[in-house]
């Protein structure tokens, strides 16, 4: 395996976060609920205490909830917060929403994905037919004051007549998103910065293309020539990637197709801890502030649990894993 | 006492509603279970796909969520959300979405966002995810809801996903070109929608359940004049569900 310095972009999680995530940044999180969450990068944001973040996500779970629970998030545009049976609604997200300590604007998954796509194409807005006549259109979560902030669209979405259609044809106009930074966890990065994602890409590619900066953590760094043998498998060119962090198991406790499954034991433990403020504080102390670095975090997870979630490289998950 | 649970009955009742050859858009939880039940038992030529981008995966093991790596394994195509929604909405595909919700009204509109005041909810739920998209764009929808008065409500606290909206032709007038809920599968029976008024009526009650039990647990008036008794689960249905589909009882509980 070659690491090189990935054209000067290889850096530690601490350096990547310090350079590309500032207080108040608008941050897109890659992955989906229990899959390929940029967990190492999220823990690093908490460790550095970079707060007042404005998160923009479609369906998210673990990294989102950790950041919300640690008090790093002031504003959230989102379609879904949950990790399936481990936490049908993300516990810290739920507590923050019910206490009113977090400004939340609800969209759907397709709407959020299209908003990233519009941003990636340099468009100010994009139409869709999803959500006509629903409270996603009628109800706004952001205050009028928030709507005046430069990083927030002046309206949530607008119902309009289809200008090309027959009378009565309606569409919703969705404002584009151009986050300050996208945080993505990928399987493989070439030593030139080319990014390969295996399994599903979710909206990671649109998020990355719409963002002002892209930070990619990855399971492995390989010679670029290996990735160039099959370019169809690659999703981002080097010139869109600003920082690369080598982070085996960097999505733990969420899954990374072909490398490891989600960690049911850890997600259950998290789900229980996150239900109370006190227990969640203990969780942060043990799992986020405690370990000196990523190696120490993985040592805390322990070799047995890491072995249990090791993916069958052909199936992409850990067959027979006890997921109860 | 029947020797099956209400979740088993729900998964089987929903599976029976799926036509062979259907293109199923599955969500998380019971809708995931029902999709796999349909494919393994009732509709072997059905194709299951997920909003996350997993198209026709092998599903040797039950995924726990649409973001589970099991939806990426042995698929014909692994892509992303935008591609998956383009299939869901495709005008020449008869897509059937299976969705759960916390609240439903008489026209099949769904709430999966918040209970109480939206800005200061008493119970915040996960949100739309792809549910609003599926309810907006699929050719048809089957819905799962636990049958309780607080869930079958006269007025939703928040309308996340469109059903027949205000009934009649209001869905088309709102700008939708197709779709709308076909059936609701609860833990007491199966409900359908009148072809003209688009109001929910009781179509089936499960073995051991009475129509009175259903109406008593529904928060709005419900026509039960068309109700018939569901066939009980067959041994084959229960056997495949328990031994092959969810042996760890991850969703069956």
Describe how the helices and strands are arranged.
The complex is a heterodimer of chains A (324) and B (253).
Chain A: H1 13-20, E1 26-29, H2 39-48, E2 53-56, E3 59-60, H3 62-69, E4 73-78, E5 80-81, H4 91-99, E6 103-106, H5 109-120, E7 125-128, H6 135-138, H7 144-147, E8 158-161, E9 170-175, E10 181-190, E11 195-196, H8 204-210, E12 214-222, H9 224-228, E13 234-236, E14 243-246, H10 264-273, H11 277-289, H12 294-301, H13 303-309
Parallel strand pairs in A: 1-2, 1-10, 2-4, 3-5, 4-6, 10-12, 12-14
Antiparallel strand pairs in A: 7-9, 8-9, 10-11, 11-13
Helix pairs in contact in A: 1-2, 2-3, 3-4, 5-8
Chain B: H1 6-17, E1 23-26, H2 30-42, E2 47-49, E3 54-55, E4 77-78, H3 81-88, E5 95-100, E6 103-104, E7 110-111, E8 114-116, E9 121-124, H4 131-137, E10 140-144, H5 170-173, E11 181-185, E12 189-193, E13 200-205, H6 211-216, E14 228-229, H7 235-245
Parallel strand pairs in B: 1-2, 1-5, 5-10, 10-11, 13-14
Antiparallel strand pairs in B: 3-4, 6-7, 8-9, 11-12, 12-13
Helix pairs in contact in B: 1-2, 2-7
3D architecture notes:
The complex is a heterodimer of chains A (324) and B (253). With 324 residues, chain A is an alpha/beta fold. Chain A is built from 13 helices and 14 strands. Chain A has a single domain (13-309), classed as Glutaconate Coenzyme A-transferase, CATH 3.40.1080. Chain A is 32% helix and 20% strand. In chain A, strands 1, 2, 4, 6, 10, 11, 12, 13 and 14 form a nine-stranded mixed sheet that branches. Chain A has a three-stranded antiparallel sheet with strand order 7-9-8, covered by helices on one side. In chain A, helix 3 crosses helix 4 (91-99) and helix 5 (109-120) crosses helix 8. Chain A is globular. By secondary structure, chain B is α/β, with parallel strands linked by helices. In chain B, helix 1 packs across helix 2 and helix 2 (30-42) crosses helix 7. Chain B has one domain (6-245): Glutaconate Coenzyme A-transferase (3-Layer(aba) Sandwich). Chain B is built from seven helices and 14 strands. Chains A and B meet through strand 5, helix 4, helix 5, helix 6 and helix 8 of A and helix 3, strand 9, helix 4 and helix 5 of B.
């Amino acid at each position: 395996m070659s690491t090189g310095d990935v054209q000067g972009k290889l850096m530690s999680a601490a350096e990547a976060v310090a350079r590309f995530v500032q207080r108040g940044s608008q941050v897109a999180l890659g992955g989906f609920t229990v899959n390929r969450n940029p967990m190492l990068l999220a823990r690093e944001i908490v460790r550095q205490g970079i707060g007042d973040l404005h998160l923009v996500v479609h369906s998210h779970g673990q990294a989102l909830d950790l950041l919300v629970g640690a008090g790093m998030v002031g504003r959230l545009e989102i379609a879904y917060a949950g990790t399936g049976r481990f936490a049908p609604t993300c516990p810290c997200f739920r507590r923050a929403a019910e206490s009113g300590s977090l400004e939340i604007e609800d969209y759907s998954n397709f709407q959020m994905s299209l908003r990233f796509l519009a941003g990636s194409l340099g468009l100010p807005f994009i139409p869709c037919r999803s959500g006509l006549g629903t409270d996603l259109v009628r109800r706004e979560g952001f205050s009028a004051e928030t709507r005046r902030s430069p990083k927030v669209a002046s309206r949530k979405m607008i119902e309009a007549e289809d200008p090309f259609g027959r009378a009565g044809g309606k569409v919703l106009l969705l404002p584009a998103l151009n986050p300050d930074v996208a945080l993505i966890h990928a399987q493989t990065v070439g030593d030139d910065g080319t990014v390969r994602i295996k399994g599903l890409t979710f909206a990671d590619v649109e998020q990355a293309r719409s963002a002002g900066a892209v930070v990619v953590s990855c399971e492995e760094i390989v010679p670029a020539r290996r990735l160039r043998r099959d370019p169809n498998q690659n999703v981002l060119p080097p010139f869109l990637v600003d920082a690369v962090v080598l982070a085996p198991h960097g999505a733990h406790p969420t899954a990374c197709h072909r490398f490891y499954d989600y960690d049911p034991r850890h997600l259950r433990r998290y789900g229980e801890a996150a239900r109370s403020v006190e227990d969640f504080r203990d969780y942060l102390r043990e799992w986020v502030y405690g370990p000196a670095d990523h190696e120490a975090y993985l040592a805390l997870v322990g070799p047995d649990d890491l072995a249990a979630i090791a993916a069958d490289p052909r199936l992409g998950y850990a067959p027979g894993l006890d997921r109860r | 006492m029947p020797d099956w649970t209400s979740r088993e009955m729900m998964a089987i009742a929903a599976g029976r509603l799926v036509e062979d050859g259907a293109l199923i858009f599955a969500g998380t939880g019971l809708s995931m279970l029902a999709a796999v039940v349909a494919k393994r038992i009732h509709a072997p030529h059905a194709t299951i796909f997920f909003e996350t981008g997993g198209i026709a995966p092998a599903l040797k093991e039950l995924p726990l969520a649409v973001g589970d790596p099991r939806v990426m394994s042995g698929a014909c195509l692994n892509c992303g959300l935008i591609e998956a929604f383009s299939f869901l909405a495709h005008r020449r595909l008869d897509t059937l979405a299976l969705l759960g919700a916390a609240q439903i009204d008489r026209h099949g509109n769904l709430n999966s966002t918040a209970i109480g005041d939206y800005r200061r909810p008493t119970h915040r739920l996960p949100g739309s995810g792809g549910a609003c998209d599926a309810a907006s764009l699929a050719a048809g929808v089957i819905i799962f809801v636990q049958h309780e008065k607080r869930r079958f409500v006269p007025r939703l606290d928040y309308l996340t996903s469109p059903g027949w909206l205000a009934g009649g032709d209001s869905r088309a007038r709102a700008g939708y070109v197709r779709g709308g809920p076909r059936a609701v599968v609860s833990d007491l029976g199966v409900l359908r929608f009148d072809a003209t008024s688009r109001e929910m009526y009781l179509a089936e009650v499960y073995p051991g359940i009475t129509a009175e039990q259903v109406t008593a647990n529904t928060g709005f008036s419900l026509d039960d004049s068309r109700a018939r008794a569901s066939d009980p689960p067959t041994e084959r249905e229960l056997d495949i569900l328990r031994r092959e589909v969810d042996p760890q009882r991850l969703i069956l509980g």
